[in-house]
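[Automated response] Your request has been received and processed.

Submitted sequence:
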Amino acid sequence: MESHHKIILRMELQIGQLIRLVANLNERLDVLEQKAKDKEIRKVLQMNRISRI
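Generated structure:
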């Protein structure tokens, strides 16, 4: 029974690590998406400035 308990605890720890890993990847993806959005906005603003000239 003790070995089953150790296996369950190890699995719970691994699940927790996976959850943290996914959360960190989501945060990184949000940052990259925001940077991409900022670049698009800058391009649009620059195009608007050029078209006014």
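Summary generated for your ticket: Residues 26 and 33 are 10 Å apart (CA to CA). The longest helix spans residues 2-52.
If you did not submit this request, please reply to this message.
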